[in-house]
Amino acid sequence: MLFLTILSFIALLAVGCANDTTPPGPHKVIGPLSVMLHDTKRNRHLEVVFWHPEALADESPLVVYAHGFNGDPEDSTWLTNHLASQGYVVAAPRFPGTNTDLSSDHLQLNDVINQPADVSRAIDLALGDVPGAPADLAGKIDAQRIALIGRSLGGLTTYLAGYDPELMEPRLTAAVGLAPGAGDIFYPPFYEHRDLPLLIIHGDKDMLVDYPATSARSHARSSAPRVLAKLVGGTHMGFADFPWLGFNPDAMVCTFFGSTFDQDPADITFHSELARRQPDSGVGDYTDSPPCTFDVPEVATMSIPRQHALSKALINSFLATQLRDAPLDQYQAGTRQLAADNADLEIAVAL
């Protein structure tokens, strides 16, 4: 609560903000719409928040959004609203153990191991396999066109739902990670379980998840079809609904909440649990440094509106190829041109 109060106060003082000039999509957006359900098999309550275009087409593609640690489905409306305006149905689970409504004593980092099943339950709900979804969605979603986008810890959830042999969601068509956390624990065998196309977008001035130790390493290790986009000067909080204050917003998080990252490694057990259950799956130990403890490049910080605009462009083109059958050669030419036109964007494509 103190953090939100400080943030709101500073936001009122912010001036000279750069604008996200991304044109709005053609569709009027309905949402957020909240649905509560109970997973009886796991005895787990789950809220799922939906956004969708007002005029739903038959066989609409579905995008699931996975929030980060101490986050929520509404923390990246720059993305969820945008996707719905582009004709996608968006479903975002509020993960029971890692959402912002929980006190610090009740946040459970290790609950990430249960989040891929929450993603699957959100898909079940959207497809009508369990009751309760908004009535307008009935029969409108194409079960063959489903993507998962995860931010931070939600990015780790995306890795697990995408490639883990026990936790993967087989209905996924594509995956996107926004500054995904803990990618360094996955080694080449992990990605060999499935050829799921993956887009990773990460800023090199991220102070919470080290870009070269995680996302750059994940791209190098993966054998799956993949794209790596480095935002030069991009930040971790730049992927959230965070005001642009003219400096790296991650520094504020580290200043006020850096101590919350000082966890005893013995208490972070999800990766050892993964490795214990699946000794040949390619899951290993951390090599990344804890948040707020590593150096970042001495480059200008990218504004949050620009980070949103570049991310939208990258996600739009990737999803068009993976969910809407846009030609691959057109995508490859477009990404090359996007990188050529923007000096603060570097893209590596291996599709």
From TrEMBL:
The alphabetized UniProt keywords are: Hydrolase, Lipid degradation, Lipid metabolism, Signal
GO molecular function terms noted in the UniProt entry: 1-alkyl-2-acetylglycerophosphocholine esterase activity
Superkingdom field: Bacteria
PET hydrolase/cutinase-like domain sequence ranges? 60-209
What are the boundaries of the signal sequence? 1-20
Instruction: List the InterPro entries hit by this protein, alphabetically.
Output: AB_hydrolase_fold (IPR029058), PET_hydrolase/cutinase-like (IPR041127)
List, in alphabetical order, the GO biological process terms annotated in this UniProt record: lipid catabolic process
Q: Tell me the protein's name.
A: PET hydrolase/cutinase-like domain-containing protein
Supply the source organism for this entry. Halioglobus japonicus
Q: What is the lineage of its organism?
A: Bacteria, Pseudomonadati, Pseudomonadota, Gammaproteobacteria, Cellvibrionales
